[in-house]
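Section 5.1 Outputs to date
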Amino acid sequence: MLKPADSIGRVKQYHPPLGGRTGLRLDFNENTESCSPRVMERLRNITAEHLTRYPEREPVEQIVAQWLGLSPAEVLLTNGVDEGIHLLCETYLQAGDEAIVAVPTFGMYEVYASATGATVATVAAGAGFSFPAAGVLARTTPHTRLIAVANPNNPTGAVAQAEDLLAIAERAGDAAVLIDEAYFDFYGQSLIPEVSRRKNLFVARTFSKAYGMAGLRIGVLAGPAAQMAEVRRIASPYNVNGVALACLPAALDDREYVSAYVASVRRGRARLEAELGMLGILFWPSQANFVLAQFGAAHEGFVSAMRRRGILVRDRHHDPGCAGCVRISVGTDLHTEELIAALRDYAQQGSRAAEVLA
């Protein structure tokens, strides 16, 4: 009888709630408005001939490398950040090895790492979801071959300090250290400049969030040239589709559009945090395009109430240390107004219900 590898049976499946996503999408940390108009123009000019050819990744990698201040040998375009994670796991992990992740965090680190047969060790975040640098260092062993850190972290929005991440890379010299900067644009601090100076440091970026290109599935993995040559061994030469490759240069050219969107998200994030504070709802300060808030036993009811208002938010109750928590994405100024109005109505309804029960 045909059977999958033993390691596949131990993989925790990742089930994003994709069905029925109608309304204001504040559940997946997507761009809530649009990609750049220049991207839309490029899409309109794509021809049938372009679609019939196999995609050429390298010319666009040269553009991205220059944009990042790296050499093309240090850059690999990927099918979203997910593929970058997958490639690192396949390149550096095997049965008997160990990967380390600080939780709560993005679930695909554990999925891809455990699929190789490696053991996944988790280190719990500190107070206020602070990054457990000392815990990660203490957990590192000679068997550690991968350490993955989302910075800013998902779903908490917390950040790790650069000196802590570099200390981990120095200590774990035999491990690939991945810094997932999917939410970099909303934070502004990056370890990309360190890639050329470190032998085991990798940084991933995505164009799904601030750039509004989640449906095109394109990201970038950067790392030391010698190690990236090894990663390329198992990457398909056609891993990124031609439409995404055609659109990415147009997206990178429109910095003004991206900067304006990021500015609106930062304003909205500050407004949302202030509103949650005024309503007496516990939240954790965020450096990403979302805020994690604590609704306790009412978390499911809050998600349902928002859906009835046409607003989608993400229940994170089952993440480690996140009991009763809901993650709320932040979008444009207009979308933030709509969200805050719904939050106030929800709070008022709760107050009225409490008065009746009293």
